[in-house]
Amino acid sequence: MNEDFKNELAIEAPSRVTGGCIHECYRVRIKGKSLFLKCNAAAFDEAFAAEADGLAGLRSAGYRAPEPSAHGIAARRAYLLMEFLDLKGEVDFPALGRMLAQAHRKAGPRYGWSRDNYIGTTPQINTWSDDWSAFWFEQRMKPQLELAAKRGFKLAGPTPDLLKGHRPQPSLLHGDLWSGNVSFTPQGPVVFDPAAYYGDREADLAMTELFGGFPLDFYSSYEEVYPLDKGYQKRKHLYNLYHLLNHLNLFGRSYLGQVEETLGLLLRL
User: Catalytic site residue 92?
Assistant: First the structure.
């Protein structure tokens, strides 16, 4: 860690910790308080600001998430400081399911969010809308398909008819809910690294099924609190297509097969 950076933030005793593949992550002490630090090039300042905003939003909706402390630029490095959490608690997926369902039950104002943010390193548009189908196809499918075309992947997008008549309650979504973004503290489950916005809660549930899935007791506990609507088993493939396209755009051709398979499935629904 750069000495100028350490001095500007008054960092004591930094120790490198895991925290994803994009940023440098540390456990640090500042003025006697233990904190979790993410840092990267100055260009990531906006991404860290959006992440802090998302964490604060999740916490206000009832999610257990680390409390953001500060973000900005120091010694030409962007940084985000947040609460340091002990992630050595008992694994309790039923509690995670209940926490998510309780947060999803709280109705938001409209679809979207107060600012744009990021899904991974891809910009994510969150302009407010009263029409869920229009929001999903204009602000989720269209940008990813256009980005894929720029990368040489010519793909026919799914039809908006797949969401015809579907008017879900706007719920505050984590937005990037896979197993790498959840953990467990002695006080219970916790989520982090959000791509938050108000949308169809099914989009969060769908992503939990995408990369290996969560244990069955997570889903049963969720539905005890907030049962899923009819049609989820079809819509989940449309919602997961967004994340598969994003992985195709970020990581390349290895995800093309899954994208094409999902597009084919959607054409048959």
Answer: no
